[in-house]
Design a protein that fits this description.
Blueprint: E1 14-20, H1 24-35, E2 40-43, E3 60-62, H2 78-86, H3 95-105, H4 108-114, E4 119-120, E5 133-136, H5 139-154, E6 158-159, E7 162-170, E8 173-181, E9 184-195, H6 204-211, E10 219-220, H7 229-236, E11 241-242, E12 248-254, E13 275-277, H8 294-304, E14 311-316, E15 331-333, H9 336-342, H10 347-360, H11 365-368, E16 398-410, E17 413-414, E18 421-423, E19 429-435, H12 453-474
Parallel strand pairs: 1-2, 1-9, 2-6, 9-19, 10-16
Antiparallel strand pairs: 3-5, 4-5, 7-8, 8-9, 11-17, 12-16, 13-14, 14-16, 15-16, 18-19
Helix pairs in contact: 1-5, 1-12, 3-12, 9-10
The structure holds flavin-adenine dinucleotide (FAD).
Keywords: FAD, Flavoprotein, Oxidoreductase
Domain FAD-dependent oxidoreductase 2 FAD-binding: 16-442
InterPro entries: CobZ (IPR012831), FAD-dep_OxRdtase_2_FAD-bd (IPR003953), FAD-oxidoreductase_2 (IPR050315), FAD/NAD-bd_sf (IPR036188), Succ_DH/fumarate_Rdtase_cat_sf (IPR027477)
């Protein structure tokens, strides 16, 4: 067995396939290339403890399946997944590649099981995804650890703290990579390269180009390593763009979250059951628009558009306990003024805004309120309206939490062809450079997001790119 999980050697080595990244798409690419008989090296920028990129924060994956089984509560046929994908944002960007992704998704769970994944039986909970999505036993961290174990079993080396700084090109061919490995700069040569280094959501300067100083108030839900350095290299070397350039997926997170890597635990789910004020003490969006999936994708962007990118969510004891409790606790007081004050918001005009909201909420809301679905309990004469779950906020104690935009990932990546090869601006392809995962997900969806489909894209395209990179190297 080859030596594994080690640091860079002193002398240059040539690999059939070098995979850049250490998350889902990278590990799948590495195993797929190895399945073809290639000699593979994985370069992960994080250290061993923090390996796994955004993928270690995930919980589930969305794939076509024809019937219920131990891990999905019912069938999810091709047509339904396709329709769901078409309903997201502006829909599939490249229909052929999106169709290929959906078709290939059907074989993904079995492939994952054969390569180290374990599954969890569906649970009741806040996500209501047991039919369409399969959950990883122990979450994304356990999935990733299982894949790393499989790499180790196969003897595929992983270099940690290996930051790819540049790709050296001779025309459309990448000849070598310059890599900082634990402070030492080495040149790695490869016959084929798979770029699976995620998006650029952790590159605050890059985000600032589109969003200005507001970025200072964004929280990045995943690791600081996804700064788009490899994406930039590909674009600078002529790769065509896929996906909305400014776009990102974002949710409301606790304003007390760490700047990076808060993961799923800092997401705030109270919004549909209360009201959200901005810094001026005003409501600004229909909190009752939907629970799932819109609340998930809309509120990060909503907050990003408010003064100082902060929101103040307020609810009362009637709904306390209907959603996951915020991990850092909540502000609590016996009056609305008290809870606004505890959150650091001047009492007026926030208190008046909530009084007006209460005046517009229906008197019979209590009998019709249904947290299990859109209940149509709506305000009248209030702008903006709250169109569901519009109960008065009138029963102490009152609760509150401050929220900020939490960026999950960016949408812009590089264009690929059906073999995962990076496409150049003139329509030709790079000779030996492939891409998988978030760095090319813009080929499938240019904006918006379907829960669980990030891992589907990474797995489907990791398999394709790994296989094609190996075939290129071994031809
Ligand atoms: C909190 C959270 C929850 C999520 N939940 C889900 C979910 O349940 N289901 C789902 O489908 N999707 C989910 N997503 C989205 C999902 O995480 C991504 O779609 C998916 O993980 C992308 O995989 P990837 O391998 O392309 O990127 P990543 O997993 O982010 O991996 C990128 C890798 O590249 C490495 N890297 C970056 N730059 C370099 C460099 N220069 N040199 C070497 N290595 C580099 C990083 O260290 C990292 O290992 C979630 C995201 C977040 C943040």
């Amino acid at each position: 067995m080859a030596e594994v999980h080690r640091r860079a050697p002193d002398r240059p080595e040539r690999w059939d396939v070098v995979v850049i990244g250490g998350g889902n798409a990278a590990l799948v690419s590495a195993m797929s290339a190895h399945d073809q008989g290639a000699r593979v090296l994985v370069l992960e920028r994080a250290d061993r403890t923090f390996r796994g990129g955004n993928s270690r924060h995930t919980r589930n994956i969305r794939c076509v399946h024809r019937s219920a089984d131990d891990y999905n509560t019912g069938a999810y046929p091709y047509d339904e997944l396709w329709k769901d994908l078409c309903g997201v944002g502006t829909g599939p960007s490249d229909e052929d590649l999106a169709e290929l992704t959906v078709t290939e998704s059907e074989s993904v769970p079995d492939w994952m099981s054969a390569h180290g994944a374990l599954w969890q039986k569906p649970l009741a909970g806040t996500l209501h995804l047991g039919r369409t999505n399969r959950f990883f036993l122990g979450g994304g961290k356990a999935l990733i650890n299982g894949y790393y174990r499989e790499l180790e079993r196969r003897g595929i080396p992983v270099w940690y703290e290996a930051k790819v700084e540049s790709l050296e090109f001779d025309g459309p061919r990448c000849n070598s990579l310059v890599v900082d490995v634990g402070g030492k700069r080495v040149t790695v040569t490869a016959t084929a390269v798979v770029c699976a280094s995620g998006g650029f959501e952790a590159n605050l300067d890059w985000l600032r180009e589109y969003w200005g100083d507001a970025v200072s108030n964004y929280h990045i839900r995943g690791p600081r390593f996804n700064d788009g350095l490899v994406l930039r290299q590909l674009l600078d070397n002529g790769a065509a763009v896929a996906g909305e350039q400014r776009g990102f997926h974002s949710v409301a997170v606790d304003a007390r979250s760490p700047k990076f890597d808060g993961g799923i635990a800092t997401r705030i789910d109270s919004i549909p059951f209360g009201v959200v004020l901005n810094k001026k003490g005003e409501r600004f969006y229909d909190e009752g628009e939907d629970i799932w999936p819109k609340r998930y994708a809309i509120w990060g962007r909503n907050l990003a558009g408010q003064p100082d990118q902060i929101g103040y969510c307020v609810w009362d004891s009637k709904v306390q306990g209907l959603f996951l409790p915020p991990m850092y606790g909540v502000y609590k007081a016996d009056s609305i003024a008290g809870v606004l004050d505890a959150m650091g918001l001047p009492t007026e005009p926030g208190r008046t805004t909530i009084e007006r909201f209460n005046a517009g909420a229906p008197a019979d809301a209590a009998g019709r309120f249904d947290p299990g679905g859109l209940d149509g309990v709506a305000t009248a004469g209030v702008v903006p309206a709250k169109t569901n779950w519009a109960q008065r906020i009138d029963t102490p104690p009152y609760y509150g939490i401050t929220v900020r935009p939490g960026i999950t990932f960016t949408y812009m990546g590089v264009k690929v062809n059906a073999g995962g090869r990076v496409v150049l601006e003139d329509g030709s392809t790079m000779e030996n450079v492939f891409a998988a995962g978030e760095i090319m997900s813009g080929n499938v969806l240019s904006s918006g997001y379907l829960a669980g489909f990030g891992m589907t894209i990474g797995t489907v395209w990791g398999r394709i790119s790994g296989r094609e990179a190996a075939r290129h190297a071994l031809r």
